[in-house]
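User: Can you fold this complex?
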Amino acid sequence: MPTPTSAPPHSAPDFLSRLASPDPEIKLKALRDIKNQIIGNRTKKLSFLKLGAVPAVASVLAASLSHSPDDVIHNIVVQSAAVLGSFACGFDAGVRAVLDSASFPHLLRLLSSPDDKVVDAAARSLRMIYQSKLAPKFDFLEAKNMEFLLSLLNSESENVSGLGASIITHSCESGPEQLALCDAGVLKKLINLLGGTLSQRNASLESLAAIFRGNPDVVSKFVEGSKNGSEVVLKCVGSEGVNALTCVSELTKDRNLRTRLLACECLIVIRNTCPGYLQDIGIKMKLVNLLIELLDDPGQVGDDAPSVFSSLITEKEDMQKLAFEANAVNKFCHHLQKNQLNPKRLQGVLLALSDLCAKLESCRLAFLSLKVLNSVTDALTHDSADVRSAACICLRNVTRSIKNLCAGYFMNEMLVIPLVRLLDDPSISVQVAALGAISNVVVDFTTRKSTFVQCGGTKQLVQLSKSMDSTLRLNALWALRNMMFLADDRCKETIILELTASLLASLIAATSTGPEAFPFGMTAPTFQLQVSASVKSLKRSDKVYLIVNLCSFGILTADPEPSIQEQALGFVRNLVDGCAKSIEFIFAEDGIILDAVGRQLQSASKAEIGIQGMYVLGNVASGNEFHKEAVMHQLLPQVDNGTQSFMMKFLQSNDSRLRTAAVWAIVNLTFPACPGAFSRVVKLKNAGIESQIRNMVNDPCLDVKLRARTVLTQSMTFSDGLT
Amino acid sequence: MSLFWIVFRQLAEIEAMATSKKLITREEWEKKLNDVKIRKEDMNKLVMNFLVTEGYVDAAEKFQKESGTEPDIDLATITDRMAVKKAVQCGNVEDAIEKVNDLNPEILDTNPQLFFHLQQQRLIELIRNGKVEEALEFAQEELAPRGEENQSFLEELERTVALLAFEDVSNCPVGELLDISQRLKTASEVNAAILTSQSHEKDPKLPSLLKMLIWAQNQLDEKAAYPRINDLSTAMLEDPAV
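Assistant: Here's the predicted assembly.
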């Protein structure tokens, strides 16, 4: 016999028909039922969303607004606002649906209702929406909007003032916005909210951080302007002559863990924005220890703590050192070994570890000694793209350890195979992160580079060096360049066969491919423009197809990105480093690579390109007679077209690194034991290069000075023959 | 005086210093205590804080009227909170969830652990009432997705579903889930979450004061013998054992 209480739950379409019922009582009941089904339940939210519940509820709300308010109608308004708010709570698909349903303006209108319950319900829902990135941006620079915002912040209701703070947290980004908020007196309101209820306090801390971020003027107004003023400051610190900064510091000791975390975050934003504040060792230690402690919270606070910790130590070696001394590496590694971490926390822990290992070898050694590398490689295959990318970034920084690279510690299949697989990842940011890790791993000083080649890594890198995405191209070339570093000839040959000389030349500099190579008589730039506009919508396989075709059209003439040109030149520099056999690579296909280097040097847009290019020429000039003459040909073109030679330009450069690279090439060209040295010295002299070098014997850069003297000593050997 | 006597006396003194603690008589002690001033308003606030946190709404109202002490929270909210707590204690979890959602829909939407524990309690009640099929369906529909989101939830869910595997649940390893204490645990978790959402401390202050008293007495025990409070319910000063 079926028990009477186990009646089948209402089927979903039933909810919709009840919502559409003309009877307000039935409507109300349906709204309450939906609300109680979806609150806290992501799966239910999704299934109701798919059924179209959001637009249905939105139209109930819209219709009720035009009714004369009685108790039931009033209740319907409250319930539908609550339902919409719950759909928007921590659920982006829900936020999108609510925004699409056009209920946003209705909810805003409800804020001016005379009824507190209605106002509260609307404010809560709007707050949920503003906690999502999808919420519309609020324009603070519009006077009317600012007035509205101030009215929210002034409200007695904690939901309404909290909404005001959430709007700031969500929308305040630019310097002018931060200043406008500050000038409108928002700081004072937010300081007042610091003394309010728990949710007001937390909302205020978040908004303050948003107003401070990157704006030292606002920070100093907050710190200096609040001296001897606010009652709230007095109340929360209990003594006179202190400022609002102390008030925020006090909140790091609050009972509520979220408040503690937000107060830490606010202080970190202040010290990162204004390096003058909060620099003493006491506060630094306090922040490090507090955040490590908060990591232990099993809930959301613990999930968020690692990223706040990262913002404290990232790019700051002194902080990384302090954190290391506070045992942070052990602590984070310990968390890493726990099973089934929440993806957000796992991502945060991996990034925190990567920040710890960014600069300090002591941290990397501690990390490696704790044997958690397996946990990181496991994370490389995690479902979440953010986690995969974080694991790569962590590996990139850990593998900066030269000591362990020398020992060949990282070139093993456990690590390399999953990394190479990630080169095929659907997410570009994961691909880029994987390239970053691979760039370091392949530096490997031992002879084990073959491990990487065998698992198809080189093929993948070459593919990516032809990608439509410039970041991918850059990082792929970077990895190839590092792969070339101290590689043996066999390895070099494999790579260059894969990459082909013509592609390499095209990455370095423009060739003379004419517009006739493009379909429908388009010129190269137009075609490229159209391709890149449409390529975003393409499937991955289509993109690869497109790239292959583009290569055959010869469209990848010169890479438009100077940083990619630099990497390509760096790659060639490593390629031709070593014995004469290595140098031969640059003469493949009638020397198109060398020609491309010459052309690029002629038009080099930044010093780094000149440096890499000159080292290429220097390395080639260390070869045999034929090699040296080829370099001479690049330095002193037969036809003088009236332009200044790049060699003279580089020797006169302000950048000592560029001068060094340029003089090195001359040193190799004038090496006296070679048969053709004499004629080269004469040519260089005639081109005015020797006299330029004479001017450099007292160069402020020691390296340049010594090399310039070497050149002169070498040419002196032939002085008898010179007039 | 011979050397022997000198040594003997010194030894005796050292021994006395090591064993004898300072003795404080009842009279001295009471005199010291009389010098400590406590404000009446502070006492009243502590009492009000206790009544409010523990949810004695009628008593709080009366106390407000008689002592003029303002509660630090709207007394009407206590009634709602107590209704939720009571619903869980009686096993009407669904009713409790609806009440919490009426009070503030954010509480369960932003507190996955509490939401899971309430759903778990619902499952326990279904099992208690022998509604096996319904319990299984509920576990699958409502709780399994939460377990997928969180490993520790999954473990708790497995433990709860294990109740169905035993003939005699009162003697099974997970039997304590059916105990009344499980309901009380869930009820106090909801109570605490509601209090936090109202920016109110989730524990009353009085117990912490008493804890501090015990701690302080233990510290003092090492240095002195004094009239001690051993029975907190009577707060009687008991003569020091000499």
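Confidence is low (pLDDT under 50) at residues 1-9, 237-241, 511-557 of chain A. The interface with chain B takes residues 3, 5-6, 32, 35-36, 39-43, 82, 85-86, 89-90, 124, 128, 158, 197-199, 255-256, 298-299, 339-340, 342 of chain A (CB under 8 Å).
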